[in-house]
Amino acid sequence: MLYILLLWLLLPLIFFRLALKSRRQPEYLQHVGERFGFYSIHSEKPVIWLHAVSVGETRATASLVAGLKRAYPGHQILLTHATPTGRAAGEQLYGDSVLRAYLPYDYPFAVKRFFLHFKPELGILMETEIWFNLINAGSDAGVPMLLLNARMSEKSAKGYARVKRLTQNALQKLSAVAAQSQDDAVRLSCLGARNVSVMGNLKFDIFPPLEMLKLGALLREQFGQRRKIFLLASTREGEEALALGALQQFSPDVLLVIVPRHPQRFGEVEELLKKRGFNYQKRSENKAVPAEIQVVLGDSMGEMFAYYAACDIAFIGGSLLPFGGQNLIEACAVGKPVLIGPHTYNFKEATRLAVEAGAAVRVSDAQELMQEAQRILNDGDALEMRGKQGVMFVSSHQGATGKAMQIISEALGSKA
Predict the structure, then answer these.
(1) pTM, entire model
(2) Among the options 34, 44, 57, 211, which is catalytic?
(3) 57 tagged catalytic
(4) Which domains does the chain have, with CATH numbers?
(5) Which helix (H) or strand (E) holds 201?
(6) What is the pLDDT of residues 278-328, one digit of tens each?
(7) How far is residue 230's CA from residue 249's CA, in Å, rounded to a whole number?
């Protein structure tokens, strides 16, 4: 009851938050009704519902969605999101082959309306999406609910432990939980989850799209075939400034490409480049990069695989400052050496395995980041070796999709 009361007290702030976010992303004011359970889309087929919050989770569903389409051609896949960027990524990946919508906020009336409208035969939550009223409503509606590709960091586990009864009640209503690692499985079990297994990480079951590789080759031509390309991928607030502050270590033949994690920060990073006096060019200009350009600002969405294909070495953002890191698997899959900072708790296991495999190098700060990048760029053998180790690292950890499909089959079988 206290949780529900808190939700009602926060209701006015939700509209304020949407309005505030819309100043940078106007899309936040689109489909607002869906966030409260009002939908205009329908399905004539039985629905398998999959929830992926934002871009990273949405891209991780690729192999799973492909498997669901093959195994259940008579069903309609509904993909729900929490952010406009996640929704846009779903559209880019799947077009009209899946239904897309926002998941409603965790108000009892909203989540109940969601289940009444779509009547899913199965619900699949990804990673750490534990919404108490949503799971309760699914249980009341008789919908089997799965938590797949689940991760639970120490930090998140401590937070959920503070509301232990709510967390335990929700987790025990899930039909199955499949974790990315043994550590994740143990933490989820300690919080009350039942039927817990380890499936690995869906993000390993990726294959760089051919069209992105082709676009990467085109970007490389624009950047300059003779220049060394250092990519700062998915950077977060403050990281660009740190990297630019240490850029003087680089030789002029190195081109820095910065791709901020969130599109609403493109303008902010451009202002930083102007203020620091760098010669820069924007990806959206879509033209050859002259030799005097020091930095390219990657102001485009959905092209990360292409950026990886075009670079020589990549730093994975969100790890230089305490944001928890981002997914490094995509860069490894394209065969590019990876650098990561000290803060990788969101991808702890994948990062540990990558470092052990020689596919990634951890650095402690921006100064060491630039020094290590320059060192590897100057060593052709190291560049090639670490790229190959990245590809082998990814291929050796694939197979999570098959395990997920088995769990889904069992859940749907139990409903039949």
Answers:
(1) 0.84
(2) 57
(3) yes
(4) 22-205+398-415 (3.40.50.11720), 210-395 (3.40.50.2000)
(5) none
(6) 999 999 999 999 999 999 999 998 899 999 999 999 999 999 999 999 999
(7) 13
